[in-house]
Amino acid sequence: MIVKIQPSKLSGLVYAPASKSSMQRACAAALVRKGETIIRNPGKSNDDKAGLNVIKALGATITELKDGSIKINSENFLDAKEGSSTGGDLEKAVNNGEAGLGIRMFTPIVALNKNEITINGEGSLLTRPMDFFDEVLPQLGVEIKSNNGKLPIKLKGPLQPKNIEIDGSLSSQFLTGLLFAYAALDAKNVTIKVNNLKSKPYVDLTLNVMESFLLKVPENRNYTEFYFDETPDTERNDFVDYTVEGDWSGGSFLLVASAVAGNIKVKGLDIASTQADKKILEALQSCGVNVNINNNEIEVSNYPSEIRGFEFDATDCPDLFPPLAALAACCKGTTKITGVHRLTHKESNRALSIKEELSKMNIKVELDDNVMLIEGTENIKAATAHSHHDHRIAMMCAVLALKANGETIIEDAEAVNKSYPDFYKHLQQLGASLSLQ
Questions:
Q1: pLDDT per residue over 239-288, tens digit each?
Q2: Which residues are catalytic?
Q3: What residue ranges define each of the domains in the chain, with the CATH number in brackets?
């Protein structure tokens, strides 16, 4: 799909999309708790659909309700304590689509089964390193065969919770999967030690979801140890009603678009959220943008019209790099963003993708080891941009197109479906001159 965007001013009110971080964790929690769950405000992105497909393959039944909510019954999920099926029709293979969180979170959950199951994915997920599982799962009694550290992966459990030490430097998502698996097994008196953990706010989100779903929650010992005590698990058969919160990752593009090209209000973003990308508010305030928060409604305006370069550490929120890059491009002076090392294994090599697309639009970007330097300009050039099949790169280019000096074309623009399928629709509703082909 090709999207053409003319320079535009935005105004109005928009609701942020559902958080795929929250939605996918809710799918995992609904599966392992073994009971009935209602999920309200469910996400509709490709990653969210992949999560639902995975839990369905593992025995859950999913029913769409009239109000748009979904009901999940997971009584047919395997009996994790015995490592065997309770009678559900478990499939011999699951596909995580292109969901990075999904593959890292669901793999330990799949490993609860004593039968061999193949895990696969699509697109860039096929090239992402999965060596973590080759190193860790055999220590937990799981037989594993991978494609030289990549997908597909064949697993044969059942996983057995033990004291273990893992590396958290690549992603916290591996830890999230182990926490759900240990909780499913009602692990007792065992500790997961973690070295150099990244994206700690996302671990907080995982623990919050576990608590909401009445799962056994480990003691968090300063993010270096997660201890499951000897207390028996609480009864899980209670009905759970869970509402997926708004997505700060997708919402950050709306807030930046408002900062550089208008004055809009965004609803549905929880200020008390543990999502790491909530830190976009700090960046906006640092560059001089006016941010007004009132009753779960955020209003952002670019008055005074001149916004200045800023410094920001995105190590724990690497998904903010694209919206931060769009913001920095419109600032006066140079912006310094730290955390580039976290960008290599995304849907694209995101640091290089940002540099390539911004360069097309007359924006100077320098990469210096773990630092990205962006020199803002008042002359953003219209260009033919490419998403690199990366949803966040597509949205970054769309935001910059609002400030360009002519028509901007974005190729393979459908990449936004991975996380925010209504993104272009929302821009149009806010006044963007935009066409899809």
A1: 899 999 999 999 999 999 999 999 999 999 999 999 999 999 999 999 99
A2: 319
A3: 3-17+248-436 (3.65.10.10), 20-229 (3.65.10.10)
